[in-house]
Write a structure and sequence with these properties.
By secondary structure, this protein is α/β, with parallel strands linked by helices. Helices cover 44% and strands 19% of the residues. The structure holds 6-O-phosphono-beta-D-fructofuranose.
Amino acid sequence: MKKIAILTSGGDSQGMNSAIRAVVRTGLHHGHEMYGVRRGFKGLMNDDFFKMASRDVSDILYRGGTFLQSARSETFKTPEGQQVAVDNLKKRGIDYVVVIGGDGSYRGAQALIKHGIKTFGLPGTIDNDIPLTDYTIGFDTTLNVVTDAIGNLRDTMSSHERVSVIEAMGRHCGDIALQAGISSGVDAILIPEVPYNLNDIAAELKAGFDRGKSHSIVVVAEGAGNAEEVAKELKALSGLDTRATILGHIQRGGTPSAFDRVFTSRMGHRVIELIDEGIDGVALGMEKNEITYHTFDEIFAGENTINKKMYQVFMDLV
Ligand code: F6P
C-alpha cells in the first residue's frame, strides 16, 4: 500500500475532474491510500490534505473545473515554500504526488522531484502547449466551445454583412485558434507561430465581400494580437464593418467532451499502473493514441509548437 496525493494547479481545464477520479478510483482498486490536496501547491504548503474514498469522486466525471480547486503560487517557487511543502508530505508519509496542470505546474512538480518526492505530471491546460503529448486536458473541449461560439457569431455577422474578429486563448500557443479555425472554416487565423500581414488579410477580406460573401471570420490567438486592435485596423484597411469578440474564460468552462473524459481516464489509470511498476518522476500524455510518459527534463527540452502540417491544411482549405 502506498500513500498517493493528488492536486490540480494553474489555470483549470475541462477534464481535470475526470483525471482526479481516474487516479483515485484506480489507486483505491489497487489497494493504495488516496489523498486530495486543496488549491494546488498552496495546499501542500498549508497542509490542506484530505483522505479520499471512492464516493468523494462520484458525480465529477462530467463536470468542468476542478473540485480540488486550483491556484497559482509565487511562494512555492521559493526554496522556503518548497521546503514547507516537502516537510508536510514527509510528515504525512505521502509516497507519491500527482500534479495536474500546465507548464508552470510541471516546474513545481520538477521542484518536488529535486527534493526527493516521487511525482507525476498530467498535462492539465486548455492551451495544448505541452511538448511530447498530442493533446492536453481540456483542449478538445475548448475547441468545441470555440467552434460553437464561432458558429453563433457567424449567424449574426452574416445578417449584418460584417467581419467577426474573435480572440481565442492559448497563451503563447496558437493551437486553439488554428484548430478552431479549421473546424469552423474561417477566413484567416493569426497565430504567434506564423508571421502575418494585416494589409494582405484586409485585401483578401475585401475581395471576398466583392465576390458576394455575406460575412468573414478572423480568429486571433491571444499570443498573436488583440482582437479589438486587429478589428480596428482591418476596418481602417478594408472599409468593412468589423466587430471584435474576446471569448475569454468561457473557453475554460463546460462539461468535458467525451474525448477529454476518455483521455483523462486512460492517463489517470496509467499513473497507478506506473506506480505499481516502480516508475515515477514522469509526465504522461498521449502520442499516436497511446498513453506515453517522459521525464520532465525531456518535456522541458521538447519543442512546443503547432503542428505545421495542420497549418498547411488550414492554408490549403481557406
Ligand atoms: O493557460 C490557460 C489560460 O487559460 C491561457 O489560455 C490564458 O492566457 C490564461 O490561462 C488566463 O489566465 P487567468 O485565468 O489567470 O486569467
